[in-house]
Every structure is written in structure tokens, then in C-alpha cells.
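Chapter review: from sequence to fold.
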Amino acid sequence: MASSFNLNAYGAMFRVRAAYSFEVGGLLVRMYAFMRTIGTVSMLTLSGYSYFMAGLVASVVAFALFLISPRVSKKIDERGQGAIVVPATCIALSGCAILLVTVLLKLPIALCFVGAVLMGFLPTPQALTRARWVYLVKSGRLGDGAPELKTVFSYEGVMDDIVFMVSPAISIALASGIHPIAGMGCGFICCVVGTLLLASSKDTEPVPGWEKKLANRKGAASADCSEGAASAESGAAAEGLRNGSAPAAGSGIACDVSADSVDDARAGKKKRSRSLFLTNPVVRTLFFLSLLMGCFFGIFDTATVSFAQIELNDPVFASLILAIESLVSTIVGFVFGMILITARQSKKMLAFSIVIGLGYGSMIFVSSSVSLLVVIFVAAGTYAPFVITLNETAERAVPEANITEALTWVTSGSICGLAFGPTLAGVIIDTWGSFACFGTGAFVALAIPVLAILTYPMMKRQVG
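The C-alpha cell string follows.
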């Protein structure tokens, strides 16, 4: 598996000034998304509701996201981000508002379950920003200076890690220090501002049907643009995007993605009525790999908190372990984005599945605080390459027109796993203790390479 190192890999990304708006918007919506579960639990428990009830509401949110969010993403792929993101986010935020008002006015708890279902309509922010980058890079709008998609996915993964580390802490601090609804209220505001920024960045939105028009253009020049003019104007459009300005109405991309391509996409909706989860074996496999990953992370985090509280009588130790895990993962993810690996995608997926399985499978050897520190230093470095490769594989497994739905299925898998993992961990801890929970998490982690090995022939056929 040959590789090379590029210190300037991220430079091409940062030169695309038109991306600043949707990146900041996506970051703010992600803050709300990562505050959502812990914010719901802390808001309800600090308001006097039981942990069981708070956990139940949070589980309904996770289950609603699993059922609804991929279908929202499917509609986004069919009709475009501009047509779907704002209405869907308004529905999701109305659900959040129901939770906030219910807690503030001490209304019946049943209303929280209604709000929890509506919160499942939130579009996946990671998928929205990644889909925009795929569009900008593959449509040729950035010209020869376009960044590598793996670098983009690495950067996005680093942002995920940073927000994952910071957002829950902010939510808990606001809820405990100001008012129980302050944490979720902050997330609500972040989501509103972030969505408005995403919606305002219209020049970077993937236009439905752009990939079909681009494929057709490879065989013939556009009717409205001569070949030379199209090339020159495409370069001008790329320069305009790097400078942060929208492309001109007659630029190359306007010729590539015209009204008839949008009509083609709308006409094709009937042809693609079934979910990618049902029709694409790669997406289905990636979902289950992501589910296993989320499950063992949920088990590991819960076991770490239990170990710190029960075995060490030092809750701060758990925060230290989880902070080290996020820090190591962030650093490795940033470095990984600068490495160009020349290998088949199926081989990379198999290799990093084995690496993360063995890394977190070492949880079975945890017997003390020292061994836990050693395990986390080793294992945390395997997370970012695995997740980045998951997203790369999803991008290669589907047509560009379906990229948002594919990436959402990957994210939904981890959400489901994170919802199920702590529940399983709680039962094991209550029955057998913290060390048994680490062992269970190890077996779940080892299931990842097992699944990757079993599906490798299919992966090789589908993604190369």
C-alpha cells in the first residue's frame, strides 16, 4: 500500500473562499447535532425528570433520525439542498422548541416524545457540506487547483472531532450553570444561524442533474458555449469561487447544469424510488460497519465513566480519558489528510477496518487506569482513518446524484450504535461490572474486521 506525504494538502481547500460560508454554517449545525442527545438528557434530568425518562426521549430522537433523516437526504439529492434543507430544518427545530417549552412550562412529558419525533427531520450537516465539496471538485468548478476529496473528508472528520469534544461540554455547562434549557437553547440558535449560512451559499449548492450533464458534455461541446469559450469561462468561474464570488450567469458551469438537467433529475425521481439501503450493498455494509463503530464507542464511553466512578472513585479521570481520545483522533485525522495512499478502495476499507477492530479490541486487556491509558493512546489513532475511508467508500459507491443520502446512511449507522451502546453497557455494568463492559466493547469492535472480511469480495467488485 504505497503512500506519499503532501504538506500543502489543505492549502487547496483554504483557497476556496466560496466554501467559507457553508463550512461555518455546517459547523454551527453540527454543534446543535452533537448537543442534541446530551442536551436532551441534561435538560430533562436537571428539570426533575428521571434518567429513565430522559434516556427514553433521547432514544426516540435517535430512532427518529434513523428512520427520517436518510429519507430527507434522498429528497435533497432529488430536488436540491435549497428546496429541502430549510423546510426540513424548520420541522426539526419546531420539535426542539416543543421540548424547550414543555420543560420551561412544566407541560406533560408526552409532548417531549412528539418533539423528539419531529427532531428526526434535521438534515445531516456532515453530508450537506461533504456533498458540496464533491460537487465543486468533480464538476470541475475549481479547475486544476481542486483539493483531493480524501483531504476534504479528513478536514471534515477533524471538524467532527473538535465539535464532538466541545459541544456536549458547552451544553452541560450552560444547562447546569444558567438554566436547564440553556444548553439546548444555545444549540437551537446555532442551528438557526448555521442553516441560514448554508442557505445563503447558493453558488456552491449541488444542482440536481449536474453529474448527468457533465457526463454528456464529455462527448460534445455545449450548444450555447463554444468549446474554447467554455474552457475559458470555466476557468473564470473557478477563479471566482476561490475569490468568494458567485460565477457569472453565462459561465461554464451554467452551461453544464442547465434547466433541462434539472428537468432530467425530476423526471428520474420515479426511477429511483427505493432507498439506497435496500438497493446498494456497499451502502448497506457501510451502515452496519458504522453501527458497530457507534455501538462500541457508546459501550467504551459508558464503561470508562463507570470505571472512573466505581473503581477509581474519580469521575474527572473519565473526562481526561475521553479528552485524550478526541485529541489523538483529531491530530491523526489532520495528518492522515496529507497522506496520499495509492491502493484499491476496497483494500483500504479492509485494512482500516482491521486496524480499528484490533485497536479497540484491545479493550479486553483493560484492568487498571494505566492499561486504559495505554489502550486509548493506541486505539484513538485508528478512528479517523477508518471514518475517513468510510466516507470515501460511500462517495465512490454511488452516483454523485445520490451522495447526500449515502453519507447520511453512514452517519445514521453511528447514531443508532451510539443510542444502543450505552443501553447495553448499562445492563452489563449493573450485572457484571465495568471490566466486563470493556470486554463486551472489545468483541463488538472485533466484529468490524469480521464483517469487512466477509464483504470484501463484494466491495472489490463494487468500488474497486
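Two observations follow directly from the output. The beta strands are 2-5, 339-342. The chain is about 75% helix and 0% strand.
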